[in-house]
Specification:
The protein has 19 helices and two strands. With 485 residues, the protein is mainly alpha-helical. The longest helix has 36 residues. It is a multi-pass membrane protein.
Length: 485
């Protein structure tokens, strides 16, 4: 019943907002719905800890340590984004950029994207996960085109076409995996259930599974924004509304990488020579390098941070590619901290862009003089994104660097060089935006400060010391992903 409650809250909200999303109370109701979902996921987390392996709907839905991590994270970031969007929507409506139709579309699609992510995470069926990812893609494509400008429509089409091609590749992988699993599990609906596949993964055909993983990597790697499949990501961030950017960068990229990890666990049992790890390691490093050196020429603040998302998903892929409990633990922590950090950064970048009436970096100046709170919050969020202590990304990057030094010293040097370049570029851009005189005519919208404070506080607290219960949870999940008991 708790699984169905978690799914029904965003789905029913999406249906209601499709008719009432333009009412004055809709933004607050959107936040209330997200809060109810967060409470539901906390209940699910308690059930998952006390009774691991909970299933529903004839085994089509399930809970395990891996999906619980991302489920709670998804609900939390969705809640803070919904709180942030109250002020964002108010400002956009007052400026005439969002009319009644756009408001109904925004609120209903916001909840539809959240529903798709929750469904994908709870799914025990790979086919259902594929459907959830496609639903999220379609919903987010309409969010990207919300402003109906030529550039936003172009970005939405680019997003839809590239991710449509990617999800088609994942479908070929789905067919191949079913072909391999049906020999062991027989025809019927069990051949795509993760819990059933786990029992026979050591008997699956390694050649078929290798091909399936490659197709899944192309499909899910496109959705995760890994290079060279990342072309849609900067445009989608730059042209869509800021809350959509926070959800996309903080959560949807995680869901795609989560799906790829599920397939990797199956493939690692039979595919020789650590093939899956080498693929993730190579393309993870490629993503880091391309993203870092692409930061130099970015002049749009949201586009700048979209390349940072590519960098950090690449870092997580490097950790999963290295394998082993320590590197996998570092990658899981990195995905968590990146979600909290990047969504907070987009809150601040979107607020600064609205204040200065421009997303161009050279037009955003004097944020500290304009508002000490938002200016210093931007600086702190930027330092968190750059992996400075005491924030969480420092801990995950340090753990990963230690494993790289132990196993691949040359790659460790390249990793440090990449982080140094990203540090120099992003710090220079952030300091330029917050310093200087107060901009003429600039005024900060009345936004809730709570979402920013929640994210920065969590990043500092978890960076200083992760509670033992949470640490053991992540450790067990890392052991599960590496095939350890």
């Amino acid at each position: 019943m708790d699984l169905f409650v978690a799914l029904s809250i965003p789905l029913l909200s999406a249906a209601v907002f499709s008719f009432t999303g333009d009412r004055p109370w809709a933004p607050a109701a959107n936040g209330f719905s997200s809060f109810a979902l967060f409470l539901a996921t906390l209940v699910l987390a308690a059930h998952g800890v006390l009774n691991p392996g909970v299933r529903a709907l004839s085994g089509q839905l399930f809970l395990d340590p891996l999906n619980l991590i991302f489920l709670v994270l998804t609900a939390l970031v969705s809640l803070t984004t919904a709180l942030y969007s109250v002020g964002y929507v108010r400002f956009e409506t007052a400026s005439g950029r969002l009319g009644p139709t756009a408001l109904r579309l925004y609120h209903s699609l916001f909840q539809m994207v959240v529903f798709s992510m929750v469904l994908g995470l709870l799914s025990n069926n790979l086919g259902l996960l594929w459907v959830a990812l496609e639903t999220a893609t379609l919903s987010n494509a309409f969010l990207v085109s919300l402003y109906k400008t030529p550039r936003s429509i172009e970005a939405a089409w680019k997003y839809f076409v590239l991710l449509g091609v990617g999800i088609a590749q994942a479908f070929f992988g789905l067919i191949l995996l079913y072909f391999a699993a049906e020999r062991e599990l027989g025809p019927g609906g069990k051949a795509l259930l993760w819990t059933e596949l786990a029992h026979v993964q050591s008997r699956l055909d390694p050649t078929v599974l290798s091909l399936a993983f490659i197709f899944f990597f192309v499909g899910f790697g496109t959705k995760a924004g890994l290079v060279p499949l990342h072309g849609w990501l900067p445009d989608a961030h730059a042209e869509g509304p800021t809350p959509a950017s926070a959800i996309l960068s903080g959560l949807l990229l995680n869901l795609a990488l989560y799906a790829l990890l599920r397939v990797k666990v199956l493939a690692d049992a039979v595919v020789p020579n650590h093939l899956t790890g080498h693929i993730l390691l190579a393309f993870g490093f490629l993503s880091v390098l391309v993203a870092v050196f692409s930061l130099w020429k970015r002049n749009d603040v949201k586009r700048l941070f979209s390349y940072s998302s590519i960098e950090h998903l690449g870092i997580a892929s490097v950790g999963f590619g290295l394998g082993g409990p320590a590197a996998t633990l570092a990658a899981l922590l990195h995905m968590t901290f990146h979600s909290l950090t990047k969504s907070c950064v987009f809150f601040l970048a979107g607020t600064a862009a609205q204040c200065c009436r421009s997303q161009k970096i050279q037009d955003i100046r004097g944020l500290l003089a304009l508002s000490p709170f938002w200016g210093w919050a931007f600086v702190l969020a930027g330092l968190a994104l750059l992996g400075m202590p005491p924030f969480g990304l420092f801990a995950s990057e340090f753990l990963l660097l230690r494993e790289l030094v132990r196993t691949h010293p040359l790659l460790a040097g390249l990793f440090l060089l990449s982080l140094s370049v990203a540090f120099a570029v992003l710090l220079k851009r952030i300091l330029a935006m917050v310093s200087g005189d107060r901009p003429a005519g600039g005024t900060f919208p009345v936004f809730a400060k709570t979402p920013v404070l929640i994210h920065l506080s969590l990043l500092a607290i978890l960076g200083i010391g992760i509670p033992s219960v949470l640490w053991q949870w992540y450790r067990k999940t890392a052991q599960y992903l590496t095939g350890l008991p």
